[in-house]
Amino acid sequence: MVKPRTARPAPATPSSRASRALYPRARVASQLTKVRALCHALPDVTERPSHGSPTFFVNGKRTFAYFLDNHHGDGRLALWCAAPDGAQAMLVDSNPDHYFLPPYVARLGWIGVRLDRDVPSNEIAMVLEAAHQTRYRPPRTRKPPAARPSHTAKHPARAAKRR
Q1: Where are the domains of the chain?
Q2: Percent of residues, the chain, with pLDDT higher than 70
Q3: Which CATH class is domain 33-135?
């Protein structure tokens, strides 16, 4: 016996928690402008949306930071950044009001920075620079191929016979 299909749930309404803006658009825009300026000051950085949020990449491929506004209704205006070994625990333990363990990527050593709190700009810049360095791989420079020695250089006697 085939069960009848049930109706799909209604789409999220503007009053649902996940879609409701918790912060004034002007504040979100100003924080995003600040983060963009800090990120684009670093070498080989590009920005494009990923998973619905502004995302910053190094070398066009490797994500090093996400800008998130109320991600899945978590109530935070935040930045998720890659972090060097040991930095995650140090930052969260030293100031849990400014730093947190972001879902999904905390197990990879990433750190969350609360942009809805009064985190000093120099701390945000420091975290972004460390994230960039963690994910940055300098472009490889190809060495020109070594000049192949002619077989006459290996055997001077053969060169003498050819003359």
Answers
A1: 33-135
A2: 75
A3: alpha beta
